[in-house]
UniProtKB/TrEMBL annotation:
InterPro entries: DNA/RNA_pol_sf, RT_dom. It holds the Pfam family RVT_1. It comes from the Eukaryota. SUPFAM superfamilies: DNA/RNA polymerases. This is Retrovirus-related Pol polyprotein from type-2 retrotransposable element R2DM. Residues 145-416 form the Reverse transcriptase domain. It comes from Symbiodinium microadriaticum.
Length: 531
């Protein structure tokens, strides 16, 4: 039996096991022992009736999240046309096979202890298989067989859905986040497809997330530099902080198909065709409290897939990039390098005036609506600018007149504000604004090392301290581009590090180990300035 047949057989065996799998996961800390969203107050019959009502609510909520557009006029025909084009390209210019080197890059990035799909073929299995010479060739042949397949196995497209609570106390179906448990081999295959195709895609300049070579610190530094410049020049922009709701689950499949058609060249028709097959209308089986039902995902890019973030970031980034260029050509200026700053689905727009904010926000909403996306927004600026907005006459239906106005907001989980008006009495500089968050991050880093400290190899104290110092110090160094090198705050940079060092040195286990080693002339004191 070859690898392909073995994988299909595993899937068939797993089908009978699915009813016994509880796919509603309640992580530690979520105190919710109820099987119903609300107490029935009756006996078993009432509980069963309440559970039936809850399942119907859940089914309707999933239907709203994964809205099916396949029946809309012209949509099915558009997919068929794109599929025909890619099929023709794959015949006229066949793509090269996946190489051992390409697949190795993917296997090396697999994380252990990840939940596998229903057949149970885990990342650990694929990693172990790759360590065998025969296993490498086996996987390589299997993945290339998928690349050339006219019809992909239905099991490869299917994703069992797990519902993760988004809040501590669940009161309704909207409090669950659906995560697709995809086959591990699906993630490997999709990553190979997306990685090849991404080499041809135009990287949007306003997108700082999901693009190779960029990271969250780039977006954080850009945002903080903008507010710092405002404060130093006393010329304040209006910042619209936008969080896109159900971003990866709401992206229109017609938009995804058009993106692949526009961005994928002739030489990679096979990769584009197979990726499109995996993305469009995958079946999603649900099993909750003994009730089973199935939905076809008519929107989104399968949250949980290896390709999801890459495709979403490019599609949204290119749409925002085009909007930015249209604004520039229309004469809309800005005192910053761009109006739009984007990290994955976190948007931050900087407007020079209220009128510009009103006009451009409306255009932004129209663009996002065309992608199937919706916004949750907050307006942030200096209190002087916000007071001016009280006298502004907003058009009917304008989102700016309906959202929260504040002198601070959260961008990428960090406070964004003009430092002189932030907090209770203002801050001295941007570094002071960030110190509180950095202190908490350093404390969290130290807490996460407790197991290492308790079980450390104390016969080599230098290595243990070096590990702690690197990990805790790395929390600061990662943020260092955001901090101004001010002499007034430099003593505080080392405060958390010194506290962590002293806590370790004062630990009874450390003292005992140090004394024992010193008695055997093996202990050399660790100087503070070397840590």
């Amino acid at each position: 039996m070859d690898f392909f047949s073995a994988w299909v057989e595993l899937h068939h065996r797993s089908v009978d096991m699915l009813p016994n799998i509880n796919l509603l996961s309640l992580p530690t800390g979520h105190r919710n022992d109820k099987t119903s969203f609300q107490a029935s107050g009756g006996g078993p019959e009432a509980d069963a009736a309440a559970a039936s009502v809850d399942v119907e609510k859940l089914r309707n909520n999933i239907k709203d999240v994964c809205t099916t557009y396949a029946t809309a006029p012209g949509i099915q025909g558009q997919w068929e046309e794109v599929t025909r084009v890619f099929s023709e390209r794959s015949r006229t210019a066949p793509s090269p096979d996946f190489t051992i080197e390409e697949i190795k890059l993917c296997i090396d990035r697999l994380w252990p202890h990840k939940t596998a799909g229903p057949p149970g073929m885990s990342n650990e299995y694929l990693i172990s298989l790759w360590e065998l010479d025969d296993g490498q060739q086996l996987l390589c042949d299997f993945l290339n067989r998928l690349l050339r397949a006219d019809d992909l196995p239905s099991a490869l497209r299917e994703a069992q859905v797990i519902l993760i609570p988004k809040v501590i106390s669940v009161t309704g179906p909207g409090d669950y986040r659906p995560i697709n448990l995809l086959e591990c081999i699906n993630k490997v295959f999709c990553w190979l497809l997306a990685t090849r195709l991404a080499t041809m895609w135009n990287a949007p300049q306003v997108q700082l997330g999901g693009i190779k070579g960029l990271q969250v610190c780039d977006a954080l530094m850009t945002a903080q530099c903008r507010t710092t410049r405002d404060s130093k020049e006393a010329r304040y922009s209006l910042y619209l902080s936008c969080d896109i709701q159900t971003a990866l689950d709401a992206l229109d499949h017609a938009v995804v198909a058009k993106f692949l058609l526009d961005e994928c060249g002739v030489q990679h028709g096979s990769e584009a065709l197979q990726l499109l097959k995996l993305l469009i209308m995958p079946p999603l089986p649900f099993d909750w409290n003994g009730f089973s039902f199935k939905r076809r995902q008519g929107t989104g890019v399968q949250q949980g897939g290896s390709h999801s973030a890459i495709i979403f970031s490019y599609i949204l980034g290119l749409a925002c990039q085009k909007l930015e260029l249209d604004w520039r050509e229309g004469g809309e200026g800005t005192c910053h390098s761009s109006i739009i700053l984007l990290f994955m689905d976190d948007l931050l727009l900087a407007f020079d005036s209220w009128q510009q904010a009103i006009t451009l926000t409306e255009e932004l909403q129209q663009v996002l609506k065309s992608l199937g996306l919706r916004l949750k927004t907050t307006l942030m600026s200096h209190q002087f600018v916000l007071l001016q907005g009280v006298s502004v006459s907003f058009p009917p239906g304008s989102v700016l007149g309906q959202i929260t106005w504040s002198t601070s907001c959260t961008y990428l989980q960090k406070t964004l504000t003009h430092y002189e008006v932030g907090g209770k009495g203002g801050f001295a500089d941007t570094t002071a604004v960030l110190l509180d968050a950095f202190g908490k991050a350093t404390h969290a880093a130290f807490e996460s090392l407790q197991r290492c400290v308790r079980r450390g190899h104390w016969s080599n104290l230098h290595s243990t301290f070096r590990l702690c110092n690197t990990y805790i110090g790395g929390t600061w160094y990662w943020y260092s581009p955001l901090l101004e090198p001010c002499q007034t705050t430099s003593p505080e940079f080392g405060l958390s590090k010194d506290c962590a060092y002293l806590a370790l040195r004062m630990s009874p286990r450390v003292r005992c180990a140090a004394g024992d080693l010193a008695g055997r002339a093996q202990f050399k004191p660790v100087e503070k300035d070397t840590l």
